[in-house]
Amino acid sequence: MADKFDVIVIGAGPGGYVSAIRAAQMGLNAAVVEKWISDDGKPVFGGTCLNVGCIPSKALLEASHKFVEAKHDFDDMGIEASDVQMDVKKMMARKDKIVKNLTGGVAGLLKANGVTAIQGTGKVTGAKQVEVTDKGGKATTYDAGNIVIAAGSVPVEIPPTPLVDGMVVDSTGALEFQETPKRLGVIGAGIIGLELGSVWNRLGAEVTVLEAMEDFLPMVDGAIAKETQKLLKKQGLDIRLSARVTGSEVKGKEVVVKYTDSKGDQEITFDKLIVCVGRKPYTQGVIAEGVGVELDQRGFIHVDDQCRTSVPGIYAIGDCVRGQMLAHKASEEGVMVADIIAGHKAEMNYDAIPSVIYTFPEVAWVGINEQEAKAAGIEVKTGTFPFAASGRAMANNATEGMAKIIANAETDRVLGMHIVGQHAGEMIAQGVIALEFGSSAEDLALTCYAHPTMSEAVHEAALAVDGHAIHMANRKKK
Ligand code: FAD
Ligand code: AMP
User: Fold this and answer.
1) CA atoms within a 13 Å half-sphere pointing along the CA-CB vector of 441
2) Ligand 2 centroid to 213 CA: how many Å?
3) Residue 70 CB coordination number (10 Å)
4) Helix (H, G, I), strand (E, B), or coil: what is residue 385?
5) Which of 153, 158, 277 to mutate to test the pocket of ligand 2 (most atoms within 8 A of CB)?
6) Looking at the annotation, which residues are catalytic?
7) What is d(CA 270, CA 260) in angstroms, rounded to the nearest whole number?
8) Which residues of the chain are under the pLDDT cut of 70?
9) How far is the centre of ligand 2, averaged over its atoms, from the C-alpha of 241 (Å)?
10) Model pLDDT for residues 151-162, shown as the tens digit of each residue
């Protein structure tokens, strides 16, 4: 094995493995170091996303949604499916199989692209040096023309709710329950908390979500967040806002949680508790003292717009640097730095990164929302279209939600798109493209959309920006 590489990437999550593949495609001699290890001693690729994040959560969300559909919605469609039963263990086994297929697929991709995979824990020991300690404790030093740190993130733990095996768990533990808890508590109404809460709510748990903040999904457009809260409540999620958890205690087979809300101190008992209060960068021990890579106060590696750290030749990407903690953001940064290392000009548009909450219906957004526009003093016009007026939504039995477009009042340029509705995560790509291409709401309005599709709601929302939606009475006064 060569001990000198043009680029060594530390961490093989969606940031790191994508960066290593791109670097190899650009003609560089690339290696990726991964410490995650399988029972048979091989490196496990894919990081948080493939192993304990995006993919397993979506496998469970899809399966649990199908269960709810079969149990409650089929009848309405004229399908008799009596005695629909769930088998949680089988659902978990399917999820594990998908993860295994994908992580194995990444191993194949790395090999096919000529990336050297190194099992072990990587540490930057110099501006051009990485030390890797393997599973047996043996340390090897590699020379690197450039280094990309893609060490990712781990769940935040808070003092009031220390983890207790199988009872008080983080997101990883919540993907492993082998049966549905009767009473499930979720701390944190962020993306992960709502997704995991939805899975277990659909599978029969009584789910209570305790959220310290007063506002529900403050990063989402107000109208969309309000609609989402209403829909999730209708499904049985008991979302308590302004509820700050102050303590928890495992008593036998129960977890007693203390929290404070506007009425004072409260107590609630669950069978299991999921702590989803955010994630923090995983940078401990990745950089040796004296290398000079600066971290910020919250432990993120400090980088510029092109992911350069304070040391030339060392880059950092993904969850361990500022910005949204999203797989596709990590991957795009991975591509950008590989291109820069290969001598190309590259940059990213951080204003056009979509976010999706994979509840049912899905919530997806890109760009700014109406309240942000207002706070920034940008005059906007908006167009909204409800799925209740969409023929395809009716056919799909998915009439809940709406699409909303925010455009600059003067130039008509699209500034944001926010959707709550079935397949919102797929539809939001239109908003991303609109932002990337600098398109106007009129450009979307003049585009021909296939009928009948859910995306027609985006078309109608674009038409509604000027008060001309066809399938809705919305004429604006001139
Ligand atoms: P990671 O995926 O965390 O990968 C980092 C890798 O580096 C790990 O494999 C780790 O073992 C390795 N590593 C760390 N230190 C070292 C070292 N010193 N030496 C060697 N290896 C090291 N994002 C989305 O975009 N969509 C979703 O639907 C979504 N769902 C999620 C659901 C859940 C439950 C969770 C927890 C997260 C979800 N995310 C989602 C977030 C997403 O998983 C992360 O944003 C993404 O994985 C970040 O990628 P990364 O490459 O920066 O880091
Ligand atoms: P996110 O960072 O999007 O995953 O969301 C985590 C959520 O957890 C945030 O909305 C926080 O307000 C919430 N949170 C953090 N600490 C507590 C706490 N002690 N009690 C209730 N909610 C909390």
Assistant:
1) 29
2) 7
3) 15
4) strand
5) 277
6) 451
7) 17
8) 1-2, 475-478
9) 10
10) 999 999 999 999
Q: Provide the token pair at 408.
A: 């600059």
Residues in the chain: 478
Examine residue 159 and say whether the peptide bond preceding it is cis (omega within 30 degrees of 0): no
User: What's the rounded Cα separation, in Å, for the pair 133 and 156?
Assistant: 26
What's the gap between Cα 284 and its chain centre?
23
Cα 50 from Cα 48, distance rounded (Å):
6
168-277, what's its fold? FAD/NAD(P)-binding domain (3.50.50)
Residues with CB under 6 A from ligand 2: 158, 160, 187-192, 210-213, 244-245, 276-278
Burial letters 450-469, b for 16+ CB under 10 A, else e: eeebbbbbbbbbbbbbbebb
Name every residue whose Cβ is closer than 8 Å to that of residue 170 and which is 6 or more positions away in sequence: 155, 157, 163, 274, 275, 276
Q: How far apart are CA 259 and CA 242, in angstroms?
A: 10
Indicate the domain borders of the chain.
Answer: 4-155+280-348, 168-277, 352-464
- Ligand 2: distance of its center to the CA of 356 in Å? 18
pTM strictly above 0.90: yes
Q: Are 408 and 441 in contact (CB under 8 A)?
A: no
The pLDDT score that the predictor gives to residue 366 is 98
**Which ligand 1 atom sits nearest the alpha carbon of residue 123?**
18
CATH no. of 352-464: 3.30.390.30
Fold of 4-155+280-348: FAD/NAD(P)-binding domain (3.50.50)
d(CA 279, CA 273): 17
